[in-house]
Amino acid sequence: MDIAPGFWEKVSQLAADGKIISIDKVKAELYTNPDSLTQWIDDNLPADFFKETDTQIVLTTYGHVCAWAASRSAHYSPGALATFLEADEADAWLVCYAAAHQLTIVTHEVSNPARKSSIKIPDACQPFNVPYLTTIEMFRALGETF
Predict the structure, then answer these.
(1) What is the mean pLDDT of residues 23-36?
(2) Average of pLDDT values for 13-20?
(3) Can you give the pTM of this predicted structure?
(4) Residue 15 above 90 pLDDT?
C-alpha cells in the first residue's frame, strides 16, 4: 500500500461512490488472517461495501452454479469441484452474486477451460454470461485515471 498509494485512494473513492462492491464471502476469506489489508479495509471502505450473499436471488443462482459445476464432473477433478463448491469459498458466490445482479467481476484469473485441477472464475462466468475484467480494464471502463 505504501508503493502505490494512488491506487488505494482510487479504490477507496470508487467504493465510497458505490462504483465497486464485494461480497461477504470475500470479506470472510480476507479476515481469516487479519493483516495490513484488513486494517486498510476497516479504515477506508464503507460499512456496506461487502454485500450479503444470503438473499433469495443469490441463493437461487447458487443452485444453478452448483448444477453447472456438477455437470462438469467428468472434466474437473473431485478436488477442484469440492473447492469451488465449498460454502466458505468466495469464487462460486462471486459468480452467483454477479449473475443475480447483472454485475461485472474484477479478477486477475485467466480463463483456462482445459485445466482440470481448479475452476477459474472466468470459466465459471461464461455459462452465466457474467462479464469479467482485470483491475486495469475496470479502471478504463470506469474512465478512471490516477
Answers:
(1) 97
(2) 98
(3) 0.94
(4) yes
Domains of the chain and CATH, by start: 5-142 (3.40.50)
pLDDT at 33 over 90: yes
Q: What is the 3-state secondary structure (H, E, C) of the chain?
A: CCCCHHHHHHHHHHHHCCCCCEEHHHHHHHCCCCCHHHHHHHHHCCCCCEECCCCHHHHHHHHHHHHHHHHCCCCCCHHHHHHHHCCCCHHHHHHHHHHHHCCCEECCCCCCCCCCCCCCHHHHHHHHCCCEECHHHHHHHHCCCC
Contact 116, 75 (CB under 8 A): yes
